[in-house]
Design brief:
The mean pLDDT is about 90. This protein starts with 7 loop residues before the first strand and ends with a helix. Helix 10 packs across helix 11, helix 10 packs across helix 12 and helix 11 runs antiparallel to helix 12. It is built from twelve helices and 18 strands. It is an alpha/beta fold. It is about 35% helix and about 20% strand. It has a nine-stranded mixed sheet with strand order 4-1-5-6-13-12-11-8-9, with helices on both faces. A five-stranded mixed sheet has the order 14-15-18-17-16, with helices on both faces. Strands 2-3 form a two-stranded antiparallel sheet.
């Protein structure tokens, strides 16, 4: 993946009432700055999409690599069978409702990564047939979730569901969240999964579909009921939502396209086996052991350079097993001190990724995983199988050469092309253990 590629993210704005902005008597459209700031910190480019767009939603999203739905007023109750005459309803924008629902459905068709925040999460649920609680203060036993019309903010904890994308992208355990909403999820929409709750039982995070941490090409669509942009500048966990959206969009964006456009990822090449690879691993493993101390339970040489005689990208893959990935600061900080770049894993809560360059080229990649967990078991099983089955190792080398030749500037497609082979080997290897 190219670190220099900047994904283009669509952010749907909302109406600004006449006079809201000085000398704008006819009103306008806008998005609060903290959303844009958080996306720019993540490396994304941002364009505003205004309510009232009449074009085909697939065409609207065609230039974009990701989509963000932000907070705002209430979803029209008539869209989910609610009571349109009930009190407390405010800020209804029918054209914005329609556009956001259309774009959410288009994002599913297009496989477009999507982050839906507060009202955006409610729209996401309604788009798939879900319903909303229209006024949380009327429900017994509810925490204080804020009063948006009074511009108040409440802070409460949210517990992620293990194995969810929410758990994967935050890796912090309980989340401290800035909240100002008066509505919430009631019945989940079709294909929507609840992945975070507050202590009063309210659904605070949702995802579209089931997560498969081994398949980064599945739809990535996450909704949160709180406002991560409020505290993202000072809280890396909340900034992670925007970093994750940007990363998934950056993976999707540089792909070669069916219309003939070439890929735009970093250059890579397959090299013949180098007898120095084990020694390079041993030297770096010693350095890592000193830097990580007791945090590292095991340090293993994995990937193609760990298999004698196997052609590979000349990058040493290292697997660092730790007792727990929560909190990730326990290993992120020391690895950064050793010169590694960190890229969060927004799919798996059992893995984080780091890389380090030498002489301007990627030299080392680190995969941090939980000791005894599925990531560790699969990758060690794959390595050990190829070490003991030279015919399979040769087939793997040939596959990699073919893919590298076909997709010279598209390392994402190169990686995808190896997936079926790798999974078949892993299944056999794990069945033998």
């Amino acid at each position: 993946m190219s670190e220099s590629y900047q994904p283009l993210v669509a952010v749907v704005g909302y109406h600004l009432a006449p006079g809201r902005v000085t000398r704008w008597p006819e009103g306008g459209y806008g998005v609060p700055g903290p959303y844009i700031d958080a996306l720019r910190r993540s490396g994304a480019r941002v364009l505003l999409v205004a309510p009232g767009e009449a074009n085909d939603p697939d065409d609207i999203l065609a230039p974009f690599d990701g989509l963000v739905l932000v907070g705002g007023g209430d979803v029209d109750p008539q869209r989910y069978g609610g009571d349109a005459t009930a009190g407390h309803t405010y800020g209804v924008e029918p054209d914005r409702d329609q556009l956001e629902i259309d774009l959410i459905l288009a994002a599913v068709r297009l496989g477009l990564p999507t982050l839906a925040i507060c009202r955006g999460m409610q729209v996401m649920n309604v788009a798939f047939g879900g319903t909303l609680h229209q006024h949380l203060p009327d429900m017994p036993g509810m925490l204080e979730h804020g009063v948006p019309t009074a511009d108040t903010v409440s802070t409460h904890d949210v517990e992620p569901v293990p194995g969810s994308r929410l758990s994967a992208l935050t890796k912090s355990g309980s989340l401290s969240c800035s909240s100002h909403h008066h509505q919430g999820i009631d019945r989940l929409g079709e294909g929507i999964v609840a992945t975070g709750h507050s202590s009063d039982g309210l659904v605070e995070a949702i995802e579209r579909g089931q997560n498969d941490p081994d398949d980064d090409q599945l739809l990535w669509m996450v909704g949160v009921q709180w406002h991560p942009e409020d505290t993202a500048l000072d809280d890396p966990v909340q900034q992670s939502f925007f970093d994750a959206l940007s990363l998934v969009a950056r993976v999707r964006g540089p792909h070669a396209k069916s219309d003939g456009k070439p890929g735009r990822t970093r250059l890579y090449a397959i090299a013949e086996p180098d007898p120095r690879w084990p020694e390079r691993f041993a030297q770096e493993a010693s350095r890592l052991g000193e830097g990580l101390g007791p945090v590292a339970v095991r340090i293993e040489h994995v990937g193609s350079t760990s298999v004698p005689g196997l052609a590979a990208k000349p990058i040493i893959d290292i697997q660092v097993s730790v007792t727990s990935l929560i909190p990730r600061t326990a290993f992120v900080d020391p690895l950064r001190a050793l010169g590694y770049r960190w890229v969060l894993d927004p799919w798996s809560d059992d893995h984080e990724y780091f890389s380090r360059d030498e002489d301007g080229h990627r030299a080392f990649q680190i995969h941090v995983c939980s000791a005894g967990g599925p990531w560790e078991r699969r990758h060690l099983a794959f390595r050990d199988w190829l070490r003991g089955h030279p015919d399979d190792a040769a087939s793997y080398a040939n596959l990699k050469r073919e893919l590298a030749e076909q997709h010279q500037r598209d390392i994402v497609t190169y990686t995808d092309g190896k997936t079926d082979f790798i999974r078949s080997i892993e299944e056999r290897a794990l069945a033998d253990t």
